[in-house]
Amino acid sequence: MRKTVTTVALASALVLAGGTAAQAITGNFTDDHEHEYVGLAVFYNPDGTASHRCSGTLLTDRVFLTAGHCVTLDDQGTVAPTARVYFEQDVQAEVSEYPTGGGVTSDELYSYGYTGLGNIPETKDVGVIVLDAPVQTAYPEIDEYASLATAGSLDSYKDAHPGNSATVTISGYGVQESNGSQTKQVAYRERLTAESFIIGLNGTNAGGYNVKLSTNPGGGRGGTCFGDSGGPILIGDTVTAVNSFVMNGACAGTGFAYRTDTDDVIAFILESAGDEAGEIDRVTL
């Protein structure tokens, strides 16, 4: 995990012998059997060892959207050479080969330009993975993909939903249990979902580039934390942002997701997708 002062990127380091070195999650997440297009990505070092894991979203049968700090190995922007993406709801229980086998592989990874969180609010925290083969080669049951919000969609949505009514859906493979500190956490590689709400789109740390979310909204809803990195901020089945960073190591208070509903980010995603770009469904909210 890479830190700058009190901001913490959400990726989870991997400990191959016994699970994940992750942090706390907040709220009451539930098992997510609905968003089959949300997957868990493992990223590998040049020597083939597993580095860290994140969440992300299928936009087509081969294009997987995640965070920039997920596809990179350091704050110099070094892109990981390979990745492997899993779509089981409970990877821990269902994939005995994890993290060295199973899933769908990729050696085509792209970063929008992420070089650490020192440039908040403009962190360029978006990444794209193009799978080596269609997801159905390993997961024939997957037949749905997320849509990509058109430019300015979050502004329109927030304007039409004042206060705490601008709710969004979170999905990802974050930490499930914690005692509320960094000293004891229980991490599961399960896809979980919850609702949160948009606090704002501008102001400190947001600046029009990030969406500010509650990580502890109450009312049975949840927030974002480590392992959720790159996971979608959804309105319906439309991606509007990818989970990026929280303001402290206990994942309390507020979190931030990097917006994907801007012209420049959309152009990056489409360019990275190559021949698959025409298959990405774009929706105006």
UniProtKB/TrEMBL annotation:
Gene Ontology BP term (one): proteolysis
Keyword DNA-binding: no
SUPFAM superfamilies to which the protein is assigned, alphabetical: Trypsin-like serine proteases
GO molecular function: serine-type endopeptidase activity
Keywords of this entry: Disulfide bond, Hydrolase, Protease, Serine protease, Signal
Peptidase S1 domain mapped to chain residues: 16-274
Signal peptide: 1-24
Source species, domain of life: Bacteria
PANTHER family to which the protein is assigned, alphabetical: GH08193P-RELATED (PTHR24260:SF136), PTHR24260
Protein name per Swiss-Prot or TrEMBL: Trypsin
